Amino acid sequence: MGKPITHPEGNPDTADTLAAWYELIVWNDDVNTFDWVIESLMEICHHTLEQATQCAYIIHFKGKYAVRKGSYELLHPMKDALTDRGIQATLSACGEEI
After folding, report:
1. Pairing label, strands 96-97, 15-17
2. Which residues have a Cβ under 8 Å from the Cβ of 43 and sit 6 or more positions away?
3. pTM listed for this prediction
4. E strands along the chain, which residues?
5. I need a surface site. Which of 19, 69, 78, 90 has the fewest CB within 10 A?
6. What is the largest CA-CA distance in the chain?
7. Helix, strand, coil shares, percent, the chain, to 5
8. Each residue's pLDDT tens digit, 55-92
């Protein structure tokens, strides 16, 4: 079993194992604009303008970035919503993409 961690939403009463958490990874491409990615991260992932802008720059310069962490149930609809907008997004658990 993995190391206990607190819930990524900041609820200290909720603990789970590391294996139960996922990362929502957004990949860089040559199609989507900064503005579109920022708008999408704000609407879908509930980022602030500053958070979404920082994520977009990291995605651009590093090629990918884990824009959100949480349970599969939380992140899977976000991944689908991003891909519906033409943004490449995947889920990763324990260092493996799924």
Report:
1. unpaired
2. none
3. 0.77
4. 4-6, 15-17, 22-27, 64-70, 89-93, 96-97
5. 19
6. 42
7. 40, 25, 30
8. 999 999 999 999 999 999 999 999 999 999 999 999 99
